[in-house]
Amino acid sequence: MEPPMDVLYAIYDGIPRQGPGSNAATRQAWSLLPDVPPSPGILDIGCGSGIQTLELARLSGGRIIALDNHQPYLDALQQRAASEQLAAHIETLNCSMDAMEFAPGSFDIIWSEGAIYIIGFERGLSVCQPLLKPGGFLVVSHITWLTADRSPELAQFWHDEGVTICTAAENVQRIEQAGYHCLAHFPLPQAAWWDEFYHLIEQKLPALRQTYRDDPERLAVVHNQQHEIDLYRMYADQYGYVFYVMRFIGDG
Ligand SMILES: C[S@@+](CC[C@H](N)C(=O)[O-])C[C@H]1O[C@@H](n2cnc3c(N)ncnc32)[C@H](O)[C@@H]1O
After folding, report:
1. The domain over range 20-191+239-248 is classified in CATH as 3.90.1170.50
2. Residue 93 C-alpha to ligand 1 middle, in angstroms?
């Protein structure tokens, strides 16, 4: 059963990002793209409140469509883009990543930090491909096993969340089979989970436990979030987010 969305938004609202990441990691991934055209057309899928969208606007000087299905995140991004004089570079779009209707070959670069798991890694690869120009880039960060050693409790947790986790080697194979070349991949440092994400969520959870104390369904979601963080505290060496920098080979 899907958790009630309002409690998830209560957990993730008001923090700088809605998933693990850092501007340094965004810049590192960007630096691995060769031959980026001037003013590239970029699609940022599952942008959230857009911390990486703003960084991409600073890095690229291009035109970015920032896509998410939660309007308050898009509103927050638009406000910040305006206050940082980046509004001319960013257009927000309230749309599901499962129902994107862009013309084929619309983008030089498709970017997605911590969001492609929503439709699944492989489906994400295939949905993005026709939207890219031949030779265009797809850059995603995605949860990945870092070692062969896996706690059964951890594996069970992510299985129950409906998230399939593979190793980087397995993902590179899926990337190449899907018609991309994997130019590079690198893991996010553990600080990218804590500094702008888990530490800030953890500070919000006591108040949310109070808010939902008489609502077992929502309280269970808050407890589950704490459990997710506790698992990362215990097993951060076993899994992490990995950035995959890919190039669409094209038909020719
Ligand atoms: C884990 S967050 C990552 C957000 C942002 N990229 C970041 O790293 O801070 C996933 C984002 O995907 C959005 N999302 C969830 N389902 C979606 C869908 N079907 N289509 C588009 N966006 C979706 C959520 O609203 C959320 O902003």
Report:
1. no
2. 12
